[in-house]
Amino acid sequence: MDRIMAIAHILGYPRIGEKRELKFTLESFWKNESSELVLHQTGCELRKTNWQKQQDAGLEFISAGDFSYYDHVLDHSVLFSATPTRFGFKGKALTQQDYFALARGNADQPAQEMTKWFDTNYHYLVPEFGPETEFLINAHEFLSQIDEAIATGAKVKPNLLGPVSFLYLGKSRAADFDRLSLLPALCAEYAVLLNELTYRGIEWVQIDEPALGLDLDQQWLDAYKDAYARIRNNRPKLLLTTYFESVARYAPNITALPVDGIHIDLVRAPEQLGVWLAVLPSHWVLSAGVIDGRNIWRNDLENTLETLIPVEKKLADRLWIAPSCSLVHVPVTLTHEQNLDAEIKPWLAFSDEKLQELNVLQQALTHGKESVKESLAASSNAILSRRLSTRVHDKKVSERLSKINTISPERTSSFVQRSTLQKQRLNLPLLPTTTIGSFPQTTDIRASRSAFRRSEISASDYQAIIQKNIRNAIEQQLQLDIDVLVHGEAERNDMVEYFGEQLAGYTFSQNGWVQSYGSRCVKPPIIYGDVYRPAAMTVEEARYAQSLTTRPVKGMLTGPVTMLQWSFVRDDQPRDQTALQLALAIRDEVDDLQKAGIAIIQIDEPALREGLPLQAGKWADYLAWAVRAFKLSASVADDSTQIHTHMCYAEFNDILPSIANMDADVITIETSRSAMELLDGFGEFKYPNEIGPGVYDIHSPRVPSVEAMEKLMERALQVIPADRLWVNPDCGLKTRGWPETIEALKNMVQTAKNLRLKLV
């Protein structure tokens, strides 16, 4: 006899489409090559497809409100009319162009600040709050999507970012302004919206409060009680949704809230299940996040059922099953992966496959394991195949790691001593100018790369094309009078994938795209086994670029922590061990570059802050191995070889001692969207080495004036001595076009020259 039907649901589905339809439509719209109607039709078609997949997988609800044309946090700023006052949109019905101006900037205003969504590689637009903020519900777009979902005939579960997390994730540039003072007014508008959903017959609303995974002080904990008391009446049932960390320590606070259930992440924090089973209110549901929403490895369904069956016996229909978090962090489907390694492909599950895994778990809990025995057998066979594969472990890597303690992570001399030698070798002016690495990836470059991969052009012809682009990049920089050059990275598809393709232990998908922000999609490589470097990866291009000029050309590498964070990482060994393997591979490349005569080597680590655990009690362990990995990759450099690193789109002030301990000779950081606020912490900390605060936002088509850049650098000079300051953009220029790039860099160089005259 069947038991009560287990309820399966998801917390969100990827927005971009199986073939990145949203990306291409967005970029076409931004170029005025397609209309707003086409953009909205694409959005409608993607939502319809996503909902049908969820229905086909037998989910109890389809997830609505999770689709966005750019970012869901930005959507909430618009939903509650909380757009920055500096844009002048108050009281105005926002157009589609206004919406994108918030994300990308316009002629008058830079874009809203962008930073990482907790410890993921997804970027959100930071809400701006202040004493002038007034909330007013602006729910047309949100409710239209809910109505679309209702029209499918399925049960609909809208997704909302909760009011406390929404305020927590924002910021204020007004001194001493308390964002929590806005909570009553904000909750009043949430109450209006929930009332609208009740009117539409919505039974459940998923209300995300991911801030509960962080270290919260008493003021923010108390805010939950206040907020949910204000939205307790005339509303659908609320599933309080948490993810990325355990929230067990806040169980007394959470169980006192007037909600109707909780979702917990049992992939990241399986230890919290026992706590919640002991304290769960008798009328609440427990949504168990048992399928990894952040990685692509197939679920061990038999093992998961061992966990769920006792829970189901206790809770019956109060047990819901789900992925650990939204599936926006994993690719859409394996359907189009025709070239994936035949042995490795069965080990993987993208979003659509995770929907099927949910269905199998649901059927097993409802009808018994015998009803899905073939699916369970396939899962077990895939798990066993991966465990026994001879390709996962490499003896040479193990032997090298066993001797890693004999390799010093420290440079030979102190920064002060190294700096003297580097200044003599490089002979750079005050406030030297440089860029972060990449130059525009034109249509011609991409077409040539694709043709080479399809064997339509020879290796020698492709090399000639790459050298032509390198030569052009060098010539453009010389004309602009930039001091430290880059080769432009024309040969690179992505700063992680390019290196992964040349390292053992990696495999790659064709269409495993994941949204990073807006139309920016990345295709993370898959680390399935031990990593090592079979041969040099960048030396040929660096040597050629340096042969074209007497000015220094930076060797450009991606650091071990970023290689780790921006890949789908194997889960069968500790992450720190994989990081050390990557560090040794990058170390070998650093050594080869300096032997080839490259005087400056940049080892990018934009993901260092991203990898930081959400709770401070776990920071020390992570920072110890992450910093060690970077230093191991760099310590092979001679004293006269200048090591740069780059970090962007994150808050660094709370880990500045660790950043200083990395001991890079020069660090470049993103600071323009925060108007140099991020630099203040480096000044207060008295950061000892050289630093290049970004003077313009490369994620916006807006070209700032010389005056605007000078203003930023003058603020930087109040914090950092001139002899330790560099002038550079926020990040790489891959996504920009050449005309705007040249104009912006021309202004940047002029800014440095103007300031040098003032400082003499």
UniProtKB/TrEMBL annotation:
Q: What class of enzyme is it?
A: transferase
Give the reactions, separated by semicolons, that this protein catalyses: 5-methyltetrahydropteroyltri-L-glutamate + L-homocysteine = tetrahydropteroyltri-L-glutamate + L-methionine
Indicate which residues the UniProt annotation says bind Zn(2+). Answer: 646, 648, 670, 731
Residues noted as binding 5-methyltetrahydropteroyltri-L-glutamate in the record, renumbered to the chain: 20-23, 116, 121, 520-521, 566, 610
Q: Where is the Cobalamin-independent methionine synthase MetE C-terminal/archaeal domain?
A: 431-754
Give the cofactor note text: Binds 1 zinc ion per subunit.
What GO biological process term is on the record, naming one?
Answer: methylation
Pathway per the UniProt entry: Amino-acid biosynthesis; L-methionine biosynthesis via de novo pathway; L-methionine from L-homocysteine (MetE route): step 1/1
Domain Cobalamin-independent methionine synthase MetE N-terminal span(s) in chain numbering: 8-314
Q: Where does L-homocysteine bind?
A: 436-438, 489, 604
Q: Name one GO molecular function term.
A: zinc ion binding
Q: Record-annotated residues binding L-methionine?
A: 436-438, 489, 604
Q: Catalytic positions?
A: 699
Sorted alphabetically, which CDD domains does this protein's record hold? CIMS_C_terminal_like, CIMS_N_terminal_like
Give the domain of life.
Bacteria
Binding-site residues for Zn(2+) 1, renumbered to this chain: 646, 648, 670, 731
Function noted in UniProt: Catalyzes the transfer of a methyl group from 5-methyltetrahydrofolate to homocysteine resulting in methionine formation.
Its recorded name reads 5-methyltetrahydropteroyltriglutamate--homocysteine methyltransferase
The record lists the organism as Methyloradius palustris
